[in-house]
Amino acid sequence: MKTTVMTRKLIPIVAISFTIAAAACNRSSPPQQDAAAATEPTAAWVAAFNKGDAATLAALYAENGRSLPPGGSVLAGRSQIESYWREDLGEGGVTTVLTPGDAITQGDLVHVDGTYQVKGKDGTELARGQYQQLWTRAGGGWQVEREMWRIDPAIERQTELAQQLTASWTAAYNAGDAKALLALYSDDSALSTVQDGTITGKPAIEMFWVGDLGAKPTSTLTVTDAYVTGELAHLEGDYKVSDSGKITTGRYIQLWMRDADGWSVHREMWWR
Which of 15, 46, 89, 168 has the greatest number of C-beta atoms within 10 Å? Predict the structure, then answer.
């Protein structure tokens, strides 16, 4: 939350999450809502920020963590994240309150979304907005794997792009073409379902879709929220799968990222 940026230009930046991180190649428990799970990692983050110590704050991030601050580009790796917070914290005295609104847990993952408020030394409000963080438990403690912040209540929604990405995924799925579907995923992508937990990497995801598409099911995805900022697109919605006359419905989240080769799915979650 760059306070200097916040106070001088409130441009629309979406605070969305990567929702699913590459946890482990083995299967884990299904996702579930657990608001209390946000308490411990949130308290640790706030304490480090309000201490004004960039090194302590950066230590809460995974070595390969990523952060999208408002008005800026993605910070990749703990070193870049520490440099950002060091500049943001300046001489100290700035405090932040994080108020988690919801938390989804799965094994050693906790995805938190909520609101934040930043105050200066004199108690003046400098900024407020929304945030989302993905925490992973490692070495007995919590680390931020992914996070995004926004400072403007007007969420940037790009309906046309969301529909294009959704159409490409649905076309491959409904054609029963596992290879075409797999081509839409990044090499280090992760997929999570209620039944199978989290699987990571293209080989494992290909095996999943080959098995899933065997009976030639068809799927309809209805996008309910699409948050886009820069090279990131976070899609949420409802799904309906028809498989040999059986109808299955639920919710899904997909994080798409764009690189030189185009858009690809990096993280996704499906649940009923």
Answer: 15
Co-location of 41 and 135 in the same domain: yes
Region 265-272: what's the mean pLDDT?
Answer: 89
- Could you tell me which of 19, 73, 22, 20 has the C-alpha nearest to residue 187? 22
Nearest to 53 by CA among 107, 16, 92, 79: 92
Residues 196 and 113 in one domain: no
Non-local CB neighbours of 204 within 8 Å, separated by 6+ positions = 25
Specify whether 166 is located in the same domain as 264: yes
Does one domain contain both 19 and 120?
yes
CATH number of the structural domain spanning residue 140: 3.10.450.50
Query: Pick the residue with more confidence: 73 or 121?
Result: 121
| Higher-confidence position of 24 and 94 | 94
At 154, the pLDDT band (50, 70, 90 cuts) reads: very low
